[in-house]
Amino acid sequence: MPLTPKAFDVLRYVVEHADRVVTHDELLEAIWPQTYVNPEGIRKYVLEIRKVLGDQRNPPFFIETLPKRGYRFIAKVSDERKAAPSGAIAGAAGDMVGRAAALAQLAACLKLAADGQRQIVFVTGEAGIGKTTLVDMFQQYVHGQLDVRIARGQCIEGFGGIEAYYPMLEAVGSLLQQGDDDSLVRTLAKRAPTWLIQFPALVKPEQREPLQREILGSTRERMVREFCETLEAITAQTPLVVILEDLHWVDPSTLDLISALARRREPARLLLLATYRPVDVVLTQSPLKPLKQDLLVRRLCHEIAIERLEESEVADYLTKSFRTDNLPAGLATLIHQNSGGNPLFMVAIVQDLVKKGMIADERGQLRLNAPVEEVYPGIPETLQQMLEIQLEQLNPEERRALQCGCVVGEHFSVWAVAAMLGEAAASIEEVCDRLAARQQFIRCEGIHAAADGSPSARYEFRHSLYRQALYRSLTGLNRSTLHLRLGEKLMAVCDAGKSELASELALHFEEGRDHARAARCLMLAAENTAKRFSYRDTVRVLRHALELMDDLAPDIRPELEVPVLQRMGDAHYALGEMYDSAVAYEGAARVALKADSKPSQLCALVHSAAPLWYIDADRGNEVCQQALAMSKDLADPLLAAQTQLAAASFRLLYDAWREEDAEICTRAEQTLRTKGKVKFPGEVFYVYVQAIRGNYEDAARQAETLVNTTTNPTARVLASGANGLIQLFRGRFGEVRKIVRSGREGAEKNGETPWMYIFGDAWLRLLCFDFQGVQNVSMRVDAEEHAAWTRTVARIASGYAAFYQGRTGEALEHFAQVRDFQVTPRFFLHWHWRMHAALGTIEALLGAEDIASAGREAGVFLESALSVADPNMRALALEIKARVARAAMDFDEARRCIESALPILEKFEIPVTAWQVHRTAWDLFTGDGDREKADRHRAHAVGIIRQLAGSFEECDPLIESLLNAPPVRRLLPRVASA
């Protein structure tokens, strides 16, 4: 029986110092350095060791307790550890029967994994068939090998399927507990910060802020990629076995992770072993079945199907159990027929026969105390009947403890049982120890931290069927009462800061028929999944919360339904599902209206404006007008400021830049900063407004704060997108490339379109003159709600591609389509892109030597650019007008334009525009014969271009695209040719 990690540390320390007494202080210093631990905890671990070793206190065989002094290991110690012999597989099998072939298959997979060939193995079979027993035996075999790590996690029925990555997080936690040093923590910090943040206890206070900055803009895809890379790093030297049990209750995110692990081509000394029940997978329509089938077809996994035992194997079990070859005639047949070859039923039937005295072992001879035909009618036909008989034989204390334990789950702590019964933990632990000692229903798992962090004995049902049978034996009222008691106890712990209990709490309140509190806990669970960037899981959890509200009283339902619908809108927005997002937000507004909750209705309306502006600008504007009118009626200055900030930001970004709207934003934001707090959606869309204005420092700081602190999926995605846009404007192309790459990786596997990052990729490629790349990227988003944006950027790219290839007429046609409101409707920053199309039009007219038309367009463009606060557009408008004036031989006007553009470069960090202004200044002063000024501006342009190119990783193809672009190649002939 395995020890908990700290109990093992205690045992190992006393064994290593078996020649002397080890004091309490010495143990505390050796195992818990710089950590306060109650000395009583050591006694608990020693008791756990004694339970596992079968030791006693008087007289002891292994550990001697010396009162007020310490402990001494008194058994003989010898160092005989060596590589497992060829017969290790047979030795690991022990008394297990009928599974030697399966164990050999697992051993063969381990050998392949140790050689660097990653292995994914599914062990399948019905309940009670022996999957866990096989895995336990294999784990014993692995422990006999040198330098093999084991991590083990389990899916939990009910709340386990809600929590994203639940079994894998448990496995990682078990692996971290085994570490003798902090190397694993360092590896996580370096390679998988998105996973390290899931273990707050491992993050030191001084690490938290840098870690939050590191995971800025993280996505679900990044979590998958980081975990895969981390496992590859961990297994570079030491093989790792990851065991995940009961995958029929798995969450979708863990399946995505398994899929990614299986499909990667990099070498890894990894064996991932997962168990599940095929019938349950079919009944729940789990995506596990098609995943396994796909991996099997591609030869990326193995399946070991555990079959029922044959009669000969039942006989083998009886022979091993009773250590005799002389079995009564017909006994093996009898047990095989009544158990159906199911190992769990087989063991239960044999134990039942022994307890009834029907089987006796007399001097090494096994005999039946009645003829076989008389024994048969007395054997229960089902495990449920058998357990009912066994339960009747228990005393009331034992029965209550088991009934409470089965309410907790397959694993339960004394702390939880005590919470339900309202009794002392010590007496409950004694009851459970008696049951475990009799090998009846449960086994001891040692001392673990309870939900509140205190040390508590933990037990496990000997099989999930035991727990299920006990659970079914409870009356409906008793069952709901126990769930409710435990939920109320856990609620206090959750409220104290352990939000990870939310899914478990929701399950207990749901089973306790308190659907209101269950829904609240599901909202918190949805926040947890959103923090792991699993937004589809977030939607699934929230839908379940809505289902629970059908039974709620009309007076309390709206206060829960509104926030649930709003959170669903947030999650859909984060996924880029704008229509679904709008439907959810509008549903929240209708519920609030029906409940006559004006503030809630206003909040929902403002939220709905975000997706509505995106898919239909007129509807978005209409909702904003409705919200503004409502905010005036409420006479709440803070609500009014929130609404004004959001509405004005939407108009600036989706309609047109108007200085009066910019001033409204400034005043509203100042009011909120002074008297309250800026909230979503105004806070995040105002970041974009700040970025457009060129206030990059403030905008970047606000975006980073949002990503680090918000629990709103929409705000997080938008803030991450804003961060990418800010880096793009600042010329940090390499950083944008990293953000885009991490957001897009694994999207096909996860079934999510990283729309925000695809847009960023297209914009970056456009600035690097990779016009074909823009076309290819834009085609990756086919959702209708994103069509306006993708078609626009694709048309601009096509226009420039045609222009540089000398097809001026075609270029002008593409740019005209972008500028035509009948062809291109309003969308996010549409006016910005129409100005880019106007800029392209002037470029094409200059190329066609239509100077008069270019001059008219340049004048209109400059007027438009000066009406917006975007320093990039202002500088670009002055730069293109200078070129038009130079082409028209109006050199004074050209100089005036350039001299007006240069101060903008000094005031704002706009390198993408700056190199173009300096290039035109170089041309202008070269024509004037002012070589000194010309060279200075050319040097500025060259330096900026090198800075842009240097921000990329070496050999990034966008470097070549940028340096070989015609406008750049003229500046850098040597670099381009190199």
TrEMBL record:
Q: Which organism is it from?
A: Solibacter usitatus (strain Ellin6076)
Keyword annotations of the record? ATP-binding, DNA-binding, Nucleotide-binding
Recorded protein name is Transcriptional regulator, putative ATPase, winged helix family
Where, by residue number, does the polypeptide cross the bilayer? Answer: none
GO process annotations (BP): phosphorelay signal transduction system; regulation of DNA-templated transcription
Q: Which SUPFAM superfamilies match?
A: C-terminal effector domain of the bipartite response regulators, P-loop containing nucleoside triphosphate hydrolases
- What GO cellular component term, any one, is given? cytoplasm
Q: Which PANTHER family match?
A: GUANYLATE CYCLASE DOMAIN-CONTAINING PROTEIN, TESTICULAR SOLUBLE ADENYLYL CYCLASE
